[in-house]
Amino acid sequence: MRGLPPAGRAPSSDHRQHDVGSGGLYKTPTLLNANFNAPYFHDGRFADYAQVVAYFDRGLQAGIQARDREDLVAYLSAVGDGERALIADDIDTRVRELTDFAVVLDTALPQHDVPAATLVVDALNRELRELTEKFPERKDSAVSGGLAERSRPAAR
Predict the structure, then answer these.
(1) pLDDT tens column, 43-98
(2) Alpha-carbon distance 6 to 46, whole Å?
(3) Residue 130 has what pLDDT?
(4) Are 28 and 13 in contact (CB under 8 A)?
(5) How deeply is 55 buried, as exposed, middle or buried, from its count of CB atoms within 10 A (0-12, 13-18, 19+)?
(6) How far apart are CA 93 and CA 81, in angstroms?
């Protein structure tokens, strides 16, 4: 299949919003551990990868051959499998991951490794932005529970 990442290199999210032909912009999710996130699409309309592939094949008029569709579904299934989804996706876990990742700066900064430091800072910036999206805005009048409710992540 063309367009797949090189062997040994996992696909990830670009953390940008894209129009996927559904009438709106949606943040690109990672494919890693996606098997644990069914149903698929922003509104859960697809039960499996085969339905997602068929949707994009039709919508983009890509003309993907049956064997290539099967290969793509197998690829998505392989990439989407893993143990990572067994770790709770809660605030404490995310903060621990951010802290663990930031440790790279302890090495990069004294060595003046600008590319590594830039990579870490950019990644931390994206991850922190995503983390803050889980909390309501301070001036959100729809949140009625005061400071205690604003300190809890929003149910999404």
Answers:
(1) 889 999 999 999 989 988 889 999 999 999 998 888 888 765 556 667 888 888 88
(2) 27
(3) 82
(4) yes
(5) middle
(6) 20
Helices (H), the chain: 49-59, 66-80, 91-102, 104-108, 114-132, 146-150
Number of helices (H), then strands (E), in the chain: 6, 2
Mean pLDDT of the chain: 77
CA distance 106 to 146: 38
Using the CB atoms, write b or e for 36-54: b if 16+ within 10 Å.
eeeebeeeeebeebeebbe
Beta-bridge partners for 46: 40
Query: Could you give the CA distance from residue 7 to residue 13 in angstroms, rounded to a whole number?
Result: 17
Is a pLDDT exceeding 60 seen at residue 11?
A: no
Q: Which residue matches tokens 């809890």?
A: 152
Nearest to 74 by CA among 91, 56, 49, 93: 49
Q: State the residue for tokens 């290199």.
A: 9
Token output for 86: 């067994």
Query: What does pTM read for this prediction?
Result: 0.45
As given in the structure block, the two tokens for residue 48 are 């499996």
